[in-house]
C-alpha cells in the first residue's frame, strides 16, 4: 500500500521559515508530478507549488519568491521551503504525488498544519 507521510509543520512567527517534507513509501515504480496544496479554514484547497515530470516548477502568485519546491527522486520525497512566512500562509498543507504503482495514480498526504502567528 502506498503512503505519503508529511512532516515539518508547526507554529512560526511572521517572517520566519519552515521546511515541509513528504515521503512516499510502498510499491512505487516511478514518480511523475509532485506538488503542495493548502487549505485555510473556510476556503477551498489551492495549489501552492508543483514540479512536473520534466522538472519544471510553477508557483501560486501569493508565494512566488518566498517558497521553493524541490524533489529527491531517489528518496521519493518532495520538499517545500517556506521563507518570509505571513499570517495568510496559515493553512493545512497537503502534498500530492502522481505515482506509477504501476498504473499512474494520484496520491495525497494526510496534511500538516502550518500556523503563522506572533
Count of beta strands: 11
**How much helix, percentage-wise, in residues?**
under 10%
Instruction: Describe the largest sheet.
Output: 7 strands, mixed
By secondary-structure content and strand pairing, the structural class works out as mainly beta
Task: Encode the helix/strand succession as letters.
Answer: EEEEEEEEEEE
Strand content: over 45%
Quaternary form: single chain
Low-confidence stretches: none
* Gap from first CA to last CA: 40 Å
Structure in words:
This protein is mainly beta. The chain is 0% helix and 57% strand. The protein is built from no helices and eleven strands. Strands 2, 4, 5, 6, 9, 10 and 11 form a seven-stranded mixed β-sheet that branches. A four-stranded antiparallel β-sheet has the order 1-3-8-7, with no helix packed on it. A hairpin with a 4-residue loop joins strand 7 (67-72) and strand 8. The N and C termini lie far apart (40 Å).
Amino acid at each position: 500500500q502506498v503512503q505519503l507521510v508529511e512532516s515539518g509543520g508547526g507554529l512560526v512567527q511572521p517572517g520566519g521559515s519552515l521546511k515541509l517534507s513528504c515521503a512516499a513509501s510502498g510499491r512505487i515504480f516511478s514518480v511523475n508530478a509532485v506538488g503542495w496544496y493548502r487549505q485555510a479554514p473556510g476556503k477551498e484547497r489551492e495549489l501552492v507549488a508543483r514540479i512536473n515530470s520534466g522538472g519544471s516548477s510553477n508557483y501560486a502568485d501569493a508565494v512566488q519568491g518566498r517558497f521553493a519546491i524541490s524533489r529527491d527522486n531517489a528518496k521519493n520525497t518532495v520538499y517545500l521551503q517556506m521563507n518570509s512566512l505571513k499570517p495568510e500562509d496559515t493553512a493545512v498543507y497537503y502534498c500530492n504525488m502522481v505515482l506509477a504503482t504501476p498504473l499512474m495514480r494520484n496520491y495525497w498526504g494526510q496534511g500538516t498544519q502550518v500556523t503563522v502567528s506572533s
